[in-house]
Each structure stands twice: as structure tokens, then as C-alpha cells.
Design goal:
Blueprint: H1 2-23, H2 29-37, E1 41-44, E2 56-58, E3 68-73, H3 78-85, E4 89-93, E5 100-108, H4 111-124, H5 126-129, H6 137-141, E6 146-154
Length: 160
């Protein structure tokens, strides 16, 4: 009986460990460094017919230590419409042929998070520092801007 319980407990730990590692695929160090150092990412979304849109350069913020980035867009943009529909965000870091990632975007409505995004944009982009083109909580609350938290994974990583 004791052996059976031990065996079952070990099996449960193994299943938990395998499912946790499959759910979280970390970015490699060079990609994290590129995210920390790059001023732009190039992004594309998927249309209803499954084709990928053209890649466009956008501003973003990532701390370089995690697999998350933050960005914003106009609520009536095709990108916003497709992300709301569940499209993945295709991301090329730094250049159109830079490291390629896939992101899952989640809308950010928390004013504190949006304010933090604006502060980070101001640290990164000079024109945001003087008050232009940065995420602002009042614009998100009023529906004039949509902010996103994007969870990234390598494009070749499998998800369950």
C-alpha cells in the first residue's frame, strides 16, 4: 500500500512538472537582450482567412528579463480588431528579419499598468518624454487607445 501511494505521488509530481514546463517556454538570452536593446518591433496579425498581415514597426516596452512586452494601438486599427478576435501577434525584434516570436495579447485596462507603460515609453523614446505618443491611462479609460500585455514564446515552441 505504501509503495502504491509513493508511486502515485511520484507520478503526479512528474505530470505536474511536465505540464508546467510545457506551458512556459522561455526566450533565449540573445532574444531577451534584443528585446531590451531594440527601439522597435515589427508586428503582424492574422486575418480571418488565415493569411498574415504586413509587418509594421511599432513602439513597445519590455524589461528584457521576462517573456512579456507591452504595446498600444488605436482601437479601430486592424491590429486591435484582430487581437480582440484572438489572432496571435507575430513579432520580429529590432528588424523585419530579427528574432521571430509569437505573442498572445491580453488587453490592459488597469490605469496603473498603463501609467507604468507611459513612464517606460518616456524613458525609451525622446518624443514620449515630452508627452507625445505614449500610453496614457485617461485615453485607455476613454476608449481612445488600446493597451496590450503580450506573452511571448519562440515561434518554433509548441503549445498545448
Amino acid at each position: 500500500m505504501r509503495r502504491a501511494l509513493y508511486s502515485m505521488a511520484c507520478s503526479m509530481v512528474l505530470v505536474f512538472a511536465l505540464s508546467a514546463s510545457a506551458a512556459s517556454v522561455e526566450l533565449d538570452a540573445p532574444t531577451r537582450e534584443a528585446l531590451a536593446d531594440s527601439d522597435l518591433i515589427y508586428t503582424a496579425t492574422e486575418r480571418k482567412d488565415g493569411s498574415t498581415s504586413s509587418a509594421a514597426p511599432i513602439w513597445f516596452w519590455s524589461d528584457g528579463d521576462s517573456d512579456v512586452l507591452y504595446t498600444s494601438t488605436a482601437p479601430d486599427s486592424w491590429k486591435a480588431k484582430r487581437l480582440e478576435r484572438g489572432s496571435p501577434l507575430h513579432v520580429w525584434v529590432g528588424e523585419e528579419d530579427g528574432p521571430y516570436l509569437i505573442g498572445e495579447a491580453e488587453r490592459v485596462t488597469d490605469p496603473e499598468t498603463v501609467t507604468m507603460m507611459g513612464e517606460k515609453y518616456s524613458d525609451k523614446y525622446w518624443i514620449a518624454w515630452i508627452g507625445f505618443f505614449r500610453p496614457r491611462a485617461d485615453r485607455v479609460t476613454e476608449g481612445k487607445t488600446v493597451a496590450y500585455r503580450v506573452k511571448l514564446r519562440p515561434a518554433d515552441a509548441k503549445t498545448d
